Amino acid sequence: MRKKQGGMGTRAVWAGEGTPAWEGAAGIPIVRQVAFAYEGVDDWRRVVLGKAKGHIYSRNTNPTVCAFEEKCRQLEGADAAVSFSTGMAAISNVFWALLSPGDRIVSVRDTYGGTSRLFLEFLPRWGVQVALCDTENHEEIEAEIAAGCKMLFLETPTNPTLKVLDINRLARAARRRGAVVAVDNSLATPVNQQPISLGADLAVHSATKCLGGHADALGGVVCGRKDLVERIFRFREIHGAALDPTAAYLLLRGMKTLHLRVAQQNESAMRIARYLSRHPAVEQVFYPGLPSHRGHEIACRQMSGFGCMLSFSLRGGLPAVKELLKRLRTCWRAANFGGVETLVGIPATTSHVECTAEEMKKLGIPEGLVRYSVGVEDCDDLLADLAQALGGRRRR
Predict the structure, then answer these.
(1) Domain boundary among 255, 272, 306
(2) 165-219 pLDDT tens trace
(3) What does pTM read for this prediction?
(4) Is-catalytic flag, 45?
(5) CATH no. for residue 345?
(6) Sign of the dihedral through C-alpha 277, 281, 283, 287
(7) Catalytic (active site) residue 326
């Protein structure tokens, strides 16, 4: 593994960007060209064969995209990184590149809805066996790993119920079986959690979310072991889900403030979770920073902060949720998380839009659940907005 270059804030700003670019630009330009030219066949051929640095065609590599990948690599402390057009492209390419018919993958029931759809519908059609376990039952997960496992795929904290999995414990179990361990780190971000340092082989991100932070660029990235990333890259070259250079530029720009945004969001989300946990209209709050959270002890061991997103269920179910969403003012009602603006929604229109009501019930997602992604607004304003929408007096 390559040495990390400086602290998290320094890497967020400088990783992948330390050398003056075209015409001495003090920053990474957008290189939109599809093809890259060479004076002679010999130089061209050396780049094609990987014997010299360079670019041939932007579906394969691109200067702007490579800078984004290098920033992500350093933030995750990984050997290598490869980017994608979306977060779901990143996740699906991990599966298609590393699994074959007859292989067995072990995961949990509480994954993002798109990932869950891959487990329930698409991977079985490819002849891949899928074992989905109760998310917080580590003993069941370990037993399924011991029964045979080519890959262990974890998401922690989970979206939207914020369940927490012990990455180090489960990675050790997977390593005994020679299985690849991949962790969706989209919600935690590298600022709050480092899956590779905890034993994972791969850290996967929807860069659309917290990494970019401004909800203006789609993207995904996989960081991890060089041999695995190279296999995923080779598949992506042919599969074609390459990251657009303009999106890469926007993600690079957004990531310069990642450490600042996450610090603000961690603090605000913690204050909001505490406030909601005391509100009479709130039935339950899901946030790993709360001592009452079932995964709090694990989260304290493996996370340096608890993230921008929390969820809570209201007394009165879905009618109460609809009324709350209608009354909230300092937020967007939209299907995203991790942005600078606060975003609010319900699983049926955000994280689990692909799932039926029955499937969400089996996943333990309450009908009256609200997903609340905290932005970087003044926390006092967010608390006041929640107080007026809930119809109660704000308490600190």
Answers:
(1) 255
(2) 999 999 999 999 999 999 999 999 999 999 999 999 999 999 999 999 999 999 9
(3) 0.93
(4) no
(5) 3.90.1150.10
(6) negative
(7) no
Considering the domain architecture, whether residues 285 and 251 belong to the same structural domain is answered as no
User: Is 209 among the residues known to form the active site?
Assistant: yes
Instruction: Kindly state whether residues 59 and 132 are assigned to the same domain.
Output: yes
Residue among 112, 249, 287, 372 flagged as catalytic: 112
Catalytic residue among 103, 184, 244, 385: 184
Give the integer Cα–Cα distance in Å for 201 and 225.
Answer: 6
Tens-digit pLDDT profile for residues 94-134: 999 999 999 999 999 999 989 999 999 999 999 999 999 99
* From 46, 57, 59, 274, active-site residue: 59
Q: What is the 3-state secondary structure (H, E, C) of 99-155?
A: CCCCCEEEEECCCCHHHHHHHHHHHHHCCCEEEEECCCCHHHHHHHHHCCCCEEEEE
Name the domain boundary from 255, 280, 305.
255
Of the segments 9-18, 107-116, 266-275, which one has the largest average pLDDT value?
266-275
SS3 for 258-284 is HHHHHHHHHHHHHHHHHHHHCCCCEEE
Positive or negative, the CA dihedral 192, 328, 366, 359 is negative
**Is it the case that residue 394 has pLDDT exceeding 90?**
no
Of residues 150, 209, 236, 256, which has the active-site annotation? Answer: 209
Tell me, yes or no, whether 102 and 12 share the same domain.
yes
Mark whether 98 and 212 lie in a shared domain.
Answer: yes
Annotated active-site residue 59? The verdict is yes
Report the largest interatomic distance among the alpha carbons of the chain, rounded to a whole angstrom. 74
Split at pLDDT 50, 70, 90, the class of 220 is very high
